[in-house]
Amino acid sequence: MTAGPAVWNGGMGSVGDYIALLKPRVMSLVIFTAFVGMMLAPGSIHPVVAGVALLCIAIGAGASGALNMWYDADIDAVMTRTAKRPIPAGKVTPDEALAFGMTLSIGSVVVLGLLVNWFAGAFLAFTIFFYAVVYTMWLKRSTPQNIVIGGAAGAFPPMIGWASVTGGISLESVVLFLIIFMWTPPHFWALALFKSGDYRAAGVPMLPVVAGEAATRRQILIYSIILAPLAVAPYALGFAGIVYGIAASLLGAVFLGLAVSVYWTREGEAARKAAVRLFSFSILYLFLLYALMLGESLAGRML
User: Fold this and answer.
1) CA distance 142 to 150
2) Cβ of 283: how many Cβ atoms within 10 Å?
3) 57/72 Cα distance (integer angstroms)
4) 59 near 179, Cβ under 8 Å?
5) Which of 16, 131, 216, 238 has a CA positioned 20 to 30 A from the CA of residue 67?
6) d(CA 157, CA 154)
7) Three-state SS for 34?
8) What whole-number distance in Å separates Cα of residue 43 and Cα of residue 252?
9) Share of residues in the chain with pLDDT > 70 (%)
């Protein structure tokens, strides 16, 4: 595969360039949701083991990001949002990125398996494979449902955190997964609405490019209608408290209101701003949901 510019400054990448390959903003969300899954899990885990688990999950997420940038370097060079990434910018070669990603992938899985438990290690390996191969190499360029199915990779970290403590999964960890899974399509489709030109130029079949903006707005609304009550499920199932239940209901109402605004606002700059508002709030929304669950868990342990 040909990726990025014709000439690279092989071996000249800085530490910052390699950190950029890890997608640190995505990694921070992975660490946070994995930590919440760990704290909500029944039982206990030694703080040092918990730290090792979080570090391995973070490195595994970063490895996925590096492999994604290696494979997607050709389309990253076309899109304005990604053109300055290390490979298309000529700071890291594709071979260097591939070696970096594979080394971190293997290392994070082996260490998690040896020092925490092998179920969590295998789960992390599957997550890396799902993001790098199933999503990046297959779904992203072949179907407008890429985000729907591929979004599972970003929803697995709280389950891996849970598995690091318990050695397995449960209904509660599946609910944590489903919240992120159902959140991902409206979050990314809102982005795609105001970045559709980038995706069209790169030949990525995002929903607005393939099915049109009207269909995308409809799908955003449908997923938002499902997400809002689903986010209250931790309270309904008893592993989150009344503060979370009330806050999740109010946040869900705001999210749904913004999705309705995206659905009805279809022309010009107003439509773009509606999509930007939903995209921006969706990040805060997910963070607050998990922060509230974490806060209640920590408060419960202190009482």
Assistant:
1) 12
2) 13
3) 22
4) no
5) 216
6) 7
7) helix
8) 30
9) 96
Q: Can you tell me the distance from the alpha carbon of 198 to that of 189, in angstroms, rounded to the nearest whole number?
A: 13
* Residue indicated by tokens 């974490």: 294
Q: What is the distance between the alpha carbons of residues 129 and 135, in angstroms, rounded to a whole number?
A: 9
* pTM of this structure: 0.93
Structure tokens given for 79: 């899109």
- For the chain, how many residues are written? 303
pLDDT tens for each residue of 132-177: 999 999 999 999 999 999 999 999 999 999 999 999 999 999 999 9
Helix/strand/coil (H, E, C) string of 105-116?
Answer: HHHHHHHHHHHC
Which residue do the tokens 């199932």 mark? 237
DSSP conformational letter for 211: T
**Residue whose tokens read 């030949």:** 203
Q: 9-44 pLDDT, tens per residue? A: 455 688 999 999 999 999 999 999 999 999 999 989
Phi-psi region of 23 (alpha: psi -120 to 50; beta: other; left: phi over 0): left
Q: Which residue, 42, 50, 63, is CA-closest to 164? A: 50
In the chain the first and final C-alpha atoms are separated, in Å, by 57
Structure tokens at 24: 């640190």
Phi, psi of 79 (to 5 degrees): -85, 135
**Residue 167 backbone zone (phi > 0: left; psi -120 to 50: alpha; other: beta):** left
Among candidate residues 142, 138, 73, the one with its CA nearest the CA of residue 101: 73
